[in-house]
Structure formats: structure tokens, C-alpha cells
Amino acid sequence: LEDEVTPRGSSKPTRHWVSLANLAWVLQPEYCYSLQHPFDPLDGWKFKGADIQKTGIFKARSVLARFFVKQIELLTEMCLQVNVNAIKELQHEYSFDLICCALWDYTLPPDMRRAFAELLSALWLDRHPHISVQFVPRCFSWSEISTSAPGRLWLPSFELDSATLDENHIDFEAVSSSTKFFLLVEHARNHLQICRGQMVHAHVGPSNYTAAVVKLLKELIQFGFVNTGDKFVGVLKPL
After folding, report:
1. CB under 8 Å to 99, separation ≥6 — which residues?
2. Which residue among 124, 181, 193, 221 is least enclosed by CB atoms within 10 Å?
3. Other CB atoms within 10 A of residue 58 CB
4. pLDDT tens, 74-121?
């Protein structure tokens, strides 16, 4: 983020870049305070949090951070139902690489990463030329999956129909490999391994992010980007 401040003794404001994590930690300080204040004790928020929350800068950051999350959610709503006009405008500002960096950045609060995960689904996954396929059967027996040959599982597999691309398509749309979302599949598997298949009701932020990751994983399967038995078992095993 770009910020504008006026240095002491100067009448002219200057601009500088501010880390998103440096702003957003106020959304869930119980998880992020120690990451942004490494020189404080690990339990620093437990002892200083009540006083910090009363300060004006904390309240101002909270307003700005919540506004940013709501802005990401608004952009997601604009892209739903494959809104081509919105997607074509936003894909340049919120690139696939940028959103992936946000998902992998564990210094960001879970609720902000949840918003980015939902934006990625609407802006980069559920779009042309990807087509969602409902695979059959809808329910699998884990004992059968883990013991049978992976090739016996029927899963959708992405195939690019180049005839549907127009002359103004971006490079991402022309990628024909079904491994184009390999980074997302690995992130989902890694996150579920960290969670060890557990969600704690009291941990609202992390639980919401885990739910967003599972939803994203389901869509990756339906769009044909987890198209082999080995990949399917690999991402579900942590559950």
C-alpha cells in the first residue's frame, strides 16, 4: 500500500510504501501481533493488548484494514457469475501472482487471506476458458480410494479449447496444461496438513480461512485441475 505522510519540519508530504501486513495485523492481533513486533515477547499482546486497543492509531488502522477487506469482498461480488467486464478490468490490478502471494503470506490475518482466496476463485478460477464439471460419484469411500489403484478414480481433467479464445486473450487463458493451478493445489494440501484436519470453533479467523481453502479445493477438482488419483489422495489425506 502507498501511504502519504508529512515529515516533521516540512510542509510537503512524502509518499512511501507500507506493508499490507503492517496495517492488517490489527484485524486479528492475537495471531499477528508477535509477527509484526518480533522484539516483543511472544505473549506481548496478552499483557499489552488492552492498552494498545485504546490508542488512536490502532483504531484508525482497524477502520482502514476492515475497509480493505470489504473492498476485496466487493470485487469478488463483482466477478461472480463470470462477469466478463469486471474480470477483464480487475485481472490486471489483482494478478494471479499477487493473490497467490497473499495466500502464502502467513503474516496476514486469516480473515484477509480468506477474502483473497474468494477473490482468486471468482477472478482466476471460475472464468473463461475453465468449465466446471460435476464428477460422479459425488461421494467416495476413503477406504476404497486409499487401497485401490489411483487410475480407477474418475475425475474431470481440464482441456483447453483454443477455438474459444479471442484475439485479445491474455497469456494465462492460453495455458493448456492442467497443472496451471499446481501452486494452489499445493497450498491447499500444505494448509490442511498444518491444520491436521482440525477446526476449532473459537478460532473464527483461521476456521473461516480453512473453509475458504476447502471450497477452493473443491472447485479445483470440479474444474479439472486435480485430475489424477494420486493428486486426489494427496490433497484429501490431510483431512
Report:
1. 116, 119, 120, 123, 124
2. 193
3. 14
4. 999 999 989 999 999 999 999 999 999 999 998 999 999 999 999 999
DSSP 3-state of 16: strand
Is residue 53 within 8 Å of 139, Cβ to Cβ?
no
Residue entry with cell 483447453: 160
How many other CB atoms are there within 10 angstroms of residue 36's CB atom?
16
pLDDT at 175 over 70: yes
Quote the radius of gyration of the chain (alpha carbons, Å).
21
CA pair distance 213, 116, nearest whole angstrom: 11
Q: How far apart are CA 205 and CA 175, in angstroms?
A: 34
CA 26, chain centre distance (Å): 19
DSSP state of 2: E
Residues 6+ apart with CB under 8 A from 140: 153
- Reported pTM: 0.86
Q: Which of 120, 136, 108 is nearest to 188 (CA)?
A: 120
Q: Which of 101-139 are b and which e, b meaning 16 or more Cβ less than 10 Å from the residue's Cβ?
A: ebbeeeebbbbbbbbbbbbbbbbbbbbebbeeeeeeeee
* Lookup result for grid cell 480453512: 210
Q: Nearest-CA neighbor of 107 among 13, 227, 25, 202? A: 25
The mean of the pLDDT values for the chain is 85
Cα–Cα distance measured from residue 48 to residue 53, given in angstroms and rounded to the nearest whole number: 9
CB atoms within 10 A of CB 160: 16
